[in-house]
Amino acid sequence: MIEAREVVLSFGETPALRGATLSVAAGEIVAVMGPSGSGKSTLLHCLAGILVPDSGEIHFDGRRVDTLDETARSVLRRDRFGFVFQFGQLVPELTAEENVALPLLLGGAKRPDALREARPWFERLGLAGLERRRSGELSGGQAQRVALARGLVAKPGVLFADEPTGALDSLTGEQVMDLLVASAREQGTTVVLVTHEARVAAYADRQVIVRDGKVNALVHS
Ligand SMILES: Nc1ncnc2c1ncn2[C@@H]1O[C@H](COP(=O)(O)OP(=O)(O)OP(=O)(O)O)[C@@H](O)[C@H]1O
């Protein structure tokens, strides 16, 4: 479904990826682990078409991604990928339901249709009653569940989750992971999950370790 082949990327003098290879099958949930600074986020950003490697290739659904121009990559991200980051990154001016509807609106849906599709996510993720709140009026766990709904609402081919529980206490983090995995499975979404927490990685079908910019160890859970 999504693949990095021998990806090399440096930030100036700092090598971040030194020949990273990873292949994720459709519907698979893969956890990317590894020490701080090893290149996990950079690998995720390359897979997601946010960063372009210096060399190597990125493929998604049979298409080469890294050779697309910025516009084509941003359309691909909008239409086929979902994102959840460590701090939710909800748009503070929008209500929770508007945040969830955002990917549909950006994809061209009419506002009433987008909001109608967004609403069931509040029940599903235990957020009923919070639809009109803004991010400042939500707890960290609630905001992260809204971010998860936003990441999945457009039924992306791949959900990229970068430390999605990193800002949460462990119980809240487990609730978010339970919901992430259940929702992704329900709609067959492939998940690339960056985490340094073994307990979070244990939710994945497979764990890989990034060390010194290479995906150099595999652990089957
Ligand atoms: N925008 C940037 N500019 C310069 N250097 C960067 C940038 N982003 C990452 N790096 C460097 O690239 C290397 C890999 O960083 P990356 O964020 O991918 O690691 P990581 O494994 O995700 O780390 P962490 O677990 O701490 O988030 C590090 O040495 C980092 O300092």
UniProtKB/TrEMBL annotation:
Pfam families: ABC_tran (PF00005). GO terms for molecular function: ATP binding; ATP hydrolysis activity; transmembrane transporter activity. One of its GO terms (cellular component) is plasma membrane. Coiled coil: none annotated. PROSITE patterns: ABC_TRANSPORTER_1, ABC_TRANSPORTER_2. The keyword Kinase does not apply. Residues 2-221 form the ABC transporter domain. InterPro entries: AAA+_ATPase, ABC_transporter-like_ATP-bd, ABC_transporter-like_CS, ABC_transpr_LolD-like, MacB-like_ATP-bd, P-loop_NTPase. Keywords: ATP-binding, Nucleotide-binding, Transport. This is ABC transporter ATP-binding protein.
